[in-house]
Hints:
By secondary structure, this protein is an alpha+beta fold. It contains five helices and nine strands, in the order H-E-E-E-E-H-E-E-H-H-H-E-E-E. Strands 1, 2, 3, 4, 5, 6, 7, 8 and 9 form a nine-stranded antiparallel beta sheet that branches.
Amino acid sequence: xxxxxxxxxxxxxxxxxxxxxxxxxxxxxxxxxxxxxxxxxxxxxxxxxxxxxxxxxxxxxxxxxxxxxxxxxxxxxxxxxxxxxxxxxxxxxxxxxxxxxxxxxxxxxxxxxxxxxxxxxxxxxxxxxxxxxxxxxxxxxxxxxxxxxxxxxxxxxxxxxxxxxxxxxxxxxxxxxxxxxxxxxxxxxxxxxxxxxxxxxxxxxxxxxxxxxxx
Length: 215
Ligand SMILES: Cc1cc2nc3c(=O)[nH]c(=O)nc-3n(C[C@H](O)[C@H](O)[C@H](O)COP(=O)(O)O)c2cc1C
């Protein structure tokens, strides 16, 4: 099979990013970009982000998760702590998050350290989830092999019966991670491939150093 994609070419012309205009704190720029993208037409799930981890097998692995909260401290998502990514993070907390917002011709790349959030915060979010999602957190031993789909469906039915009329409690192995950033790069596509790249790096005194990078 061969599919030559060398003619795929697009000019990026929707925005610009100047070092003189950016805020001192990258979380503020993240918030500005997120609002703009989230309110733009044609953008679905602006909070979908790719998280890359260093696996126990020595390979990096990337997959999409949903950003559920961000603050000056970092970026929070929820998952199964026993999943492949969960185990990878507990082994090596250095991760990379990335967003590609096609409609806005923007990319954000975040290097940071992931850690579990406090159990009561995970409880609060778990309680806010629809019942079906709560039960599926109990059903799925995320990343483990399953014989077939019916195994999962039967387990779901059994758990639905067991929990009839009862609250579903958060399983201990399910909860949030916060990624505390050490570096954030903002990429804005520009014409003629002269894209804008502004990088923030956290120094030892917790100040953000801002630099422009060549595209
Ligand atoms: C749009 C989208 C959103 C997702 N959101 C989550 C999420 O918030 N948490 C999660 O654990 N998995 C989420 N997933 C599934 C993950 O991509 C992945 O399949 C799963 O977490 C298992 O990954 P792992 O085996 O590498 O740990 C999402 C997938 C997609 C495509």
